[in-house]
Amino acid sequence: MSGLVQVIGLGPGDTGLLAPTAREAIEAADIILGYKTYLKLIADIAPNIPRQASGMRKEVERARQALELAVESQRVVVVSSGDAGIYGMAGLVLEICLENEYQVEVEVIPGISALNAAASLLGAPLVTDFAVISLSDQLVPLAEIKKRLEAVAQTDFILGIYNPKGKQRLEPFNQACEILLRYRKPQTPVGIVRQAYRKDQQVTIISLKELPQAEIDMLTILIIGNQQTVVQHGKMITRRGYHTKYKF
C-alpha cells in the first residue's frame, strides 16, 4: 500500500462530540480534504495541517483527489459531518478506490450521526425499530423516494428524515407530508431539530398535521414518531413496552 485515506465523521459539529480516534487522525494527517463548511468546524484542531476545501456537489472530485494524494504516500483525511458512512463520503471513496484499483488503504472512522444527535436533543424517540430516508432527489429519483415513504409509512417504524427540504426542492417534502398523513394519525409527534449541537441549534416538537407548514430546511433532521411515541414535559419518548410489564 502506498498511503492511507481516512474517512472520518466529525459528529454533529460540537468538537466535544468528536470521537478521540477521529481527532487523532486529524492531528496525524498530511492533508485534510472536505466541504468548506465542515472544515470550519475543526478549524482549531491541528490548524497547521494543510486543508483543501471544496463546495457542494464536488464529492467525486474530492474522493478522487484524496486517493491520488494517498498514492503519493501521503496520509489523507477526508471529513464528513455526522458519520462518514451515513449519507457521507465513506461509500464514495471506497467505491472509487475499488473500481479503479487504487493501491491505497482506506479506513473509515465513525462519528455521531445527525440522527443520533437529533434524537438525544428530543429525548428518546429511537429506542425501538426505525427507518431512515433522505428526501434529496439529487441521486435517487423522486418516484423511488415515494415508494420508500409509502412502505415505511404503512408500518409502525419510527422514521428519521434527512435533507427534508431545499430552497428550490419543495416537492419531495410536500409528497412526504401527504403520504405520512395518509397512513398516520394527525397527532403523531414529530421532532424537528435544526443545527444540532451547533450555535444556531433549534429543537421543536409538533404534531404531524402541523408539519406541512413548519419551517424546514436542509440543516434540519425530522423524527416522525410511531403509535407508542408520546411527548411528556417537552421530551419525545417512544415506549418500548416496559410500561406494560412493570410498575414504574
Give a short summary of the structure.
The protein is of the alpha/beta class and 248 residues long. It has 2 domains: 4-112, Cobalt-precorrin-4 Transmethylase, domain 1; 115-238, Tetrapyrrole methylase, C-terminal domain (Methyltransferase, Cobalt-precorrin-4 Transmethylase, Domain 2, 2-Layer Sandwich).
Describe the structure.
The chain has 248 residues and is an alpha/beta fold. Helix content is 31%, strand content 25%. The protein is built from 8 helices and 13 strands. The strands form 3 sheets. The chain has a 5-stranded parallel beta sheet with strand order 3-2-4-1-5, sandwiched between helices. Strands 7-8-11-9-10 form a 5-stranded mixed beta sheet, with helices on both faces. The protein has a 3-stranded mixed beta sheet with strand order 6-13-12. Helix 3 packs across helix 4 (90-99) and helix 6 (142-153) packs parallel to helix 7 (171-183). The mean pLDDT is 94.
